[in-house]
Amino acid sequence: MMKLQTIVCSTRPGRIGPQIGKWFNEFALQQSGFTAELVDIADYHLPVYDEPNHPRQQDYQHEHTRKWSEKIDQGDAYVFVLPEYNFCPPPAFFNALNFIYNEWNYKPCGFVSYGGVSGGLRSAQLAKQLVTALKMMPIPEGVLVQMPWNKLDDDSHFKAEAPHESSATDMLKELHRWAAALKAMRQ
User: Fold this and answer.
1) Could you tell me the pTM of the whole model?
2) 35 burial type by CB count under 10 A (0-12 exposed, 13-18 middle, 19+ buried)
3) DSSP of 60-107, one letter per residue?
4) How far is residue 108's CA from residue 93's CA, in Å, rounded to a whole number?
5) Where are the domains of the chain?
6) For residue 34, what are the contacts with CB-CB under 8 A and spacing of at least 6?
7) pLDDT in tens, 97-114
8) Which of 142, 12, 169, 183 is closest to 90 using CA atoms?
9) Distance (Å, rounded) from C-alpha 107 to C-alpha 180?
10) Residue 131: which of 172, 92, 78 has the closest Cα?
11) What is 3-186's CATH topology?
C-alpha cells in the first residue's frame, strides 16, 4: 500500500497547524487507499539550509538532514498543511523542501491551506510553483480552511465542516491516482 505523509509546515509557537494536520491525517486513514503518517517539520529542527553539497548529490553532512531525507523518502504522496504568512508559505516550508531533492521527485502533493478569509489560498498557489522545481506534481484539488481559530473546540481539536471533508475526499482520490501513476517513474 502506498504511503501518504501529511506534513505540518508551520514551526512557530502557538501554531494551529498540528491540530489541522491531525484531523487531515486521521481523515486520510479512514477515507483513502493510503497508509497515512503525520510528519511535523518542527520535530526535525532544521536550521536554515546548511549542507555544503547540492541536495541532488545526497551527500548529506548533517544528522538532521539524513533524518529528514529518510523520513521523506518513505512517502509516495504528500499533503502539506500550510498557513499563509504575508500571502506566502512559511519559511520553514521553503527550507524543508530545499534541504533535499531526489526524495521529492515524481511524487504528487496536495495542500490543506489555512489562514484568514482567503483560507491560505495564496500561500498554496506560491507553494505549487516551488514543488514543480522539485519534480513534484501539485494537484489542483485542495482544502481551504478559513479562520481556523474559529473551528477549534474547547480541547483545541480542529472540527472540520462538510466542505473540508468533501474537498479532502476529492483531493485524496486524485492524490491516489497520481501516486499510482508516478510510481513507475520512481522505479
Assistant:
1) 0.97
2) middle
3) --SHHHHHHHHHHHT-SEEEEEEE-BTTB--HHHHHHHHH-SGGGTT-
4) 16
5) 3-186
6) 1, 2, 3, 4, 28, 76, 77, 172, 175, 176, 179
7) 999 999 999 999 999 999
8) 12
9) 9
10) 78
11) Rossmann fold (3.40.50)
